[in-house]
Each structure stands twice: as C-alpha cells, then as structure tokens.
Amino acid sequence: MHVPAIALDGLTKYYGRVVGLERLSLTVEPGEVFGFLGANGAGKTTAIRLMMDLLRPTAGRAAVLGFDCHRQALEARRRIGYLPGETPLYPELTGAAYLRFLGSIGPRPPAPARLNALLRRFEMSRLDLGRRMRDYSHGMKRKLGIIQALMSEPPVLILDEPTSGLDPLMIDAFAEEIAELSAAGRATVFLSSHVLSEVERICSRIALIRRGSLVTVRTLDDLRGTQPRRVTILFSRPITAAIPVLPGVTIVSRRDREWVLDALGPLGPLITALAGLPVDDIRYSTPTLEDIVLRLFAEGQPC
Amino acid sequence: MLTLLARSFGRVSRMWAASALLLVGFQVALTSAALSLQESGDYGRLFDAVPAFVRNWLGPSLSSFAGMTALVFFEPLVILLLVLFAVYIASEPASDVEDGLIDLLLARPLPRHWIVTRSLLVMTVTALTLVLMLAAANMASVALMAPDGVPGPSGKTVLNLAAHLFALTWCFGGVTLAVAARLERRSGVLGVLTIAVIALFLLEVLVEFSKRFEPLRWLTPFDYFQGTQILLDKAPVTLDLTVLGTIGLVGTAIGYWQFARRDL
Predict the structure, then answer these.
(1) What letters, b where the CB count within 10 A reaches 16 and e where it falls short, cover A40-55?
(2) Where does the pLDDT of residue B2 fall: very low under 50, low under 70, confident under 90, or very high at 90 and above?
(3) What angle do CA B213, B204, B23 make, to 5 degrees?
(4) Residues of chain B that touch chain A, judged by Cβ-Cβ distance less than 8 Å
C-alpha cells in the first residue's frame, strides 16, 4: 500500500476567532523536497507545529509515514527530525553537551560518522563545540539546530525556516546536504521558508499558503509552465503594423521600435508571425519564482 | 526519563546547594543561640520579655533548648525559602514553553506527561533532600553542641516537623504544577504563586493574631503546619499531612490534565 511521507487532510486551527490554518490538505511523497511558502503569519509554523503535535487541530488530521500526528504521536515523532523556527537552547550547555543530550533522548543516538560528517559540512570545530551556547552567534545556533535535526538520520525532516541567519556559504552547505539526502532517497524534506530563491534551488515541489489557506501546490516546472514569459521585440525602424493576435500572447506595452508581450506556451507561432518585420533583437525572460509567487499571492485564489 | 531528570537537576543544582548551605547555616546559628541562652539561663527572661501574641505563636520554642533548636522547621523565613524554592522548580514546564525548549524535547518520541513527571520528581527530590538535610543538621548540631544533660528535640518531633515542612512545600509545588501547565511564561507562574504564597501566609498570621479571621483558617495551607503544637505533641499530624498531601495531589493531577490537552 502506498503511504505518503506526509499527509495533511483538512487540517484546521483556530486561535479563538483568529484563523491560523484552514482546511489544509496536501501530501508529500517519500523522497520529495517540499517547500512550504508563505508570508509572515501565513500559517506555515502553525501547520508545522500541528504536525509535531505541539498544537492540537481544531479539525482535520496530519499523518507522517502513515502515523497520525496526534493519536500516534510517538510513532510519528520517532520518524521526524525537526528544526523549530527559533533554535531553542540550553545556554549553560556547550554545543557538544547539547548534541549529546538531544541524541540521548531519541529517537536514536547519532552514528559518530554521520555526526562528524555534519559537523564538517557545517564547519563546527571542536573549539566551537566546546563553547557554551550562551556565547554562540545566531548563525552558530542555527547550524547546531540543523545538525540536531539531521544527526539521527530520520526518514522525514520538518524544518521551519532552516536557513534564516545562515551565511551564504552555510546556505550552500545546507542545500548540498538536502540535495544529497534527496538524491539518495534517504529522507523526505518538508521545509518552510519565505526566501524564494532558496526554495527554488532546493525544492522540487512547493505549496503556497496565504492567510491560513492553501493557494496552490505545484512542482516548480508546472508553476513556471503556467506563467507567461516576458518577450521584448526590438525593431530596427518604427513599426506601424498591428501586433499579431495569437493564442497565449498578450500585449504588455507597445512603442515605435519595441513591443513587450507576455507569451504562454511555445514561442514558434509568435516567431513565425514576426517574419517580414525588421526585427533587430528578441529578448525574453522566464518569470522567477518570486514573480510567480507574488502574482499568485496578489490573485489570492485558493486552489 | 533519566536524561531529562539529569538535565533538570543540573540546571537547579547550584540553587539547591546554595539553599542547603543557607538552611544548614541557619540551623547552626539557631543551635548556637539556643546554647548561649541555655548557658546564661535566660530562657525564662526571654519567654517573659516577648509580647503575649509572640508567646502564643512560638510558645515552647522560646522556653527550652529543645524548643529553640526545633524552631528552624517553622521559622517563617525557612518555610518561605523552601516553599518558593519548590514553586520555582515546579514552574519548569512553563519555562520550557517560554524558551521553546518544549519544541526540542517533544520533537523526540517522549510522551507529553514526562515533562510534568520530570518537574514533579525534581521538585519532590530537591525539596525532600533539603528538608532531610535540615533535619540532619538539626540532629547533628544538637548532638555536637548540646550541653550535658540538656535534651534536644526528640526524634519523633524532628520527624513530624520535617514531614510537615516537606508536605507544605510539596503542596505548593503541586499547585504550582497546575499553574505552570497552563501558563506560557515562568515569570507569570512565579508572580501568581509568590503573591498567593505571601497572601496565604499573611492570612495565617491574621488567623493566629485575630479571632475575626478564625473562619478563614481552613483556607491557608500554612495552618496545617502548627510547629508549636507539634512540639507539644498536640498536632493532628495525620489530618494535617492528609490535607497538605491532597492539595498537592489535586494540583499535580490538574497539571497533568492541563498539559496533556493544551497547545504548546
């Protein structure tokens, strides 16, 4: 029987009269790197904390690898590596003691080779690990948070804004780690973020959430395919001819020597229609994830 | 669970050691004072010198070496120190939520109730060891410093006083668990409980000194620890311990119930 890594079914959470999350349904397949996008306060952390059984749903259910996140919470959490949005710490502990403590309360002690590999990847030296956590910078705390989530090699990783506070090198290291885990099929990754460039780089599929409601769930390729490319046509002399009417092509602006169009689908018909015109140059740009997300948020249409 | 307990004990070990030193020091100072009064034969004058309400309140602890050395168990400062110590320890669940550590702990396959059980055990063990240490300090200082032929408090009296002191401390610890399982800030728990402890202590003082407040006597847990009555062997020990234990148990049960169903 096929069991999704994560299944959310009508997950709803109200804080009194305030909507935290409303009827969120989605599935994440094993091995996927799934991005959960939304603005601040959109409901990302609420969804994650519901999955971790830290919050209790008003309605609906969440399951991890087939285990209900509330009724079978221990079984579900045995399979999850979790990074909270803020890295909580014991300021009086050293980094090494912190990892030892967390390793000893489960789900299983980290293999030394795995832990050492993570420490190397995230450039945590013995000296760093010997310092008390109260002396750590924000980035150091975040690195340790990521390491504690990954060190026990859980099959599902739930990471709440994992790269916040990391420098670009460490963001690279994180992206490499996630890519390796995904390529080897060793983990399903569910990560929330509002940094779109990172999500674009790391994730294969994303969900957009806005004011507690799901806007869309798509692969990045699908998402790009649904959005028009911006095509700018430059002419060598002023053009008075009408812009050809083609399916999927809309006019953005028109000047004597320049047409700006949005084109959805193959560009062949447009290029054919331009034959005979004194085209000097054609420039086109694919929309960035940021463009797409901003457009979807502006439309605000739940899927 | 052992790892969790060790972590929590580690976090309060210095406070525990400092409290233990204070209590032992207080006992040694009190035994020294009792010895001095014994040697100068001033117990009679001390008893006559204090106002009547203090005489009624502290009674036998002002009139003999045995009574004065036992005073440590029901001296208001000592009681408040121990009660507030237990309140602080039992407020740990709220602190875990406030610091976000609960996210880290419950991301592991730990049952929620372990968080309350851990704090209950740490509160119980630290309070019990402090009271036992006080009892040991009492017996040791009396054994080492008492003049020949002058008896200290009997073993039964020390045991009864220690049991009451622990029961009172544990009672407030249990109530604190109920509040700490509901609130999200340790400072909020400490604020509520400190005010409650002081208000209930004041009520006990009022009950002792004014008949007008007599009907409210049953409201304050402090009333179930009558040190002078224990010294005179007239205290309803079983009833007192049952009431204090029951309040603590109810508080603890509410704490478990609250923590199991709340959003963290």
Answers:
(1) eebbbbbbbbbbbbbb
(2) confident
(3) 170
(4) 3-4, 7, 10-11, 99-111, 261-264
Instruction: Indicate the residue type of B220.
Output: T
Contact call for residues A81 and A149 (beta carbons, < 8 A) = yes
Please give, rounded to a whole number of angstroms, the shortest distance from the CA of B208 to a CA of chain A: 45
Partners of A281 in beta bridges: A234
Give the pLDDT confidence of B46-80 residue by residue, as tens digits.
777 777 777 777 777 777 888 889 989 998 999 99
pLDDT, tens digit only, all 303 positions of chain A: 789 999 999 999 999 889 999 999 999 999 999 999 888 888 999 999 999 999 999 999 999 999 999 999 999 999 999 999 988 889 999 999 999 999 999 788 889 999 999 999 999 998 999 999 999 999 999 999 999 999 999 999 999 999 888 888 999 999 999 999 988 888 999 999 877 778 888 898 999 898 889 988 988 888 777 778 889 999 999 888 888 888 888 888 999 899 999 888 888 888 888 888 889 999 988 877 777 777 777 765 544
> φ and ψ at B149, to 5 degrees?
80, -5
Residues of A in contact with B4 (CB under 8 A): 105
> What's the CA gap between B182 and B230, in Å, rounded?
36
Q: How far is CA B132 from CA A17, B123, B145, B245, in A?
A: 51, 14, 20, 18
Cross-chain Cβ contact B4/A105 below 8 Å:
yes
Residue B51 CB burial class (10 angstroms; 0-12, 13-18, ≥19): exposed
C-alpha dist (Å) from residue B9 to A57, A264, B3, B126: 34, 64, 10, 8
Q: Do B103 and A53 touch (CB under 8 A)?
A: no
Provide the Cα torsion A81, A86, A92, A95; round to 10°.
Answer: 50
| Cβ density class A141-151: b for 16+ within 10 Å, e for less | bbbbbbbbbbb
Out of A49, A90, A105, the one facing B110 most closely (by C-beta) is A105
Q: Is the dihedral of CA A183, A184, A187, A188 positive or negative?
A: positive
Q: Is the Cβ–Cβ distance between A72 and A117 less than 8 Å?
A: no
Q: Which residues does B248 contact at the CB level (< 8 Å), separation at least 6? A: B167, B170, B171, B172, B173, B174, B175
Q: Tally the residues of chain A.
A: 303
